[in-house]
Amino acid sequence: MESDDQLRELYDEAGDLCLHNPSPDVRIAVACKSMLIYGLALNERGWCLGHEAEPNALKAWHRCEAGSDRFSRDQLTLF
Questions:
Q1: What is the pLDDT of residues 35-77, one digit of tens each?
Q2: How far, CA to CA in Å, does 71 sit from each of 9, 23, 30?
Q3: Other Cβ atoms closer than 10 A to 5
Q4: If pLDDT is split at 50, 70 and 90, which confidence band does 21 have?
Q5: Distance between CA 49 and CA 10 in Å, rounded?
Q6: Which of 24, 30, 34, 78 is most buried, judging by how many CB atoms fall within 10 Å of its CB?
Q7: Number of helical H runs and strand E runs in the chain
Q8: Distance of CA 16 to CAs 26, 34, 52, 64, Å?
Q9: Where are the domains of the chain?
């Protein structure tokens, strides 16, 4: 089982591929979905990425609290 730190690292690695590559390639789509899956797993462990209305550039992983952004399972089926 991955540690929280390993999941955050996997999230960042997938983000490097997903967010910096406009290609419609399948591996890019997989990286983007992987980010969501890692984010959901971290949410289940009590970690959230940023707060509501916070700019993306300022978002950081923190223990979830009121007003924290959470990943949505609804996004799993969208491509």
A1: 999 999 999 999 999 999 999 889 999 999 999 999 999 887 7
A2: 17, 23, 16
A3: 9
A4: confident
A5: 14
A6: 34
A7: 2, 2
A8: 15, 12, 23, 24
A9: 4-69
